[in-house]
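To illustrate the input format used throughout this study, we show a single complete record. The first block contains the structure-token representation of the backbone; no residue identities are included at this stage. The design step must infer an amino acid for every position from geometry alone.
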């Protein structure tokens, strides 16, 4: 499934939708790597949102101010009043607490929120390393035991050595089982914490974005209603036109 980036181009980082009936199996290791890439993308998107929000509100203020300037030389009260109210309203939003709160929420998300999980990510990585190393050792022990498997006429010394290596393999299998369980617990804990942070981040940003966009929408709607409520141009000018 392709998605559009904020620049309007197709994003190749969007998740691919599995086909109907297809069983998707992703290892915890691959999932952690995917999370890391997703975080890079999220931070990039937040930085762009920060820049775009500032530039968009500045542009709206500039447009409202230019309408006010254009209207000042007309003799049409509704345009003069509406443009003046719009300029003041947009400037009020630009300097208001809602926009400031949104910017602070974005800054916090970029600088602090997901740093909380960095330690847990490192612990998970170390647990994964221990598990992988143990699994590699177990694979070598299994191969060695297969090679040492004595024949029926093997001498007692060879049989004893094989039994000793087999015991080592069995003990290491138990250690591998323990490390796998440890990693699975760490991974589950990581997923839970990560999900909680994503929820907090999304909820905070949506609340702040909604406040800012609602404030802007209110000012624009008020200007539109004011224009529609009064005559666009004086009757004398309409006759001349």
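Output of the design step:
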């Amino acid at each position: 499934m392709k998605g559009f980036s904020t620049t309007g181009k197709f994003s190749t980082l969007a998740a691919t939708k599995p086909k109907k009936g297809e069983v998707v199996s992703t290892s915890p290791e691959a999932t952690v790597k995917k999370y890391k890439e997703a975080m890079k993308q999220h931070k990039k998107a937040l930085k762009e949102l920060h820049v775009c929000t500032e530039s968009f509100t500045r542009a709206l203020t500039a447009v409202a101010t230019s309408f006010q300037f254009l209207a000042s030389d007309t003799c049409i009260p509704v345009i003069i009043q509406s443009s003046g109210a719009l300029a003041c309203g947009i400037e009020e939003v630009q300097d208001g607490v809602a926009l400031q709160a949104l910017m602070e929420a974005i800054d916090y998300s970029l600088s602090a929120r997901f740093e909380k999980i960095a330690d847990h990510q490192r612990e998970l990585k170390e647990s994964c390393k221990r598990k992988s190393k143990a699994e590699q050792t177990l694979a070598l022990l299994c191969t060695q035991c297969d090679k040492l498997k004595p024949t029926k006429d093997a001498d007692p010394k060879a049989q004893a050595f094989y039994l000793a290596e087999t015991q080592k393999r069995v003990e290491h299998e138990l250690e591998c089982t323990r490390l796998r369980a440890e990693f699975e617990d760490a991974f589950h804990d990581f997923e839970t914490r990560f999900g909680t942070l994503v929820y907090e981040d999304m909820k905070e940003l949506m609340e702040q974005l909604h406040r800012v966009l609602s404030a802007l929408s209110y000012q624009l709607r008020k200007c539109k209603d004011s224009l529609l409520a009064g005559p666009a141009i004086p009757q004398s000018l309409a006759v001349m036109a």
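Structural context for interpreting the output: The beta strands are 3-4, 10-11. The first helix runs from residue 28 to 71.
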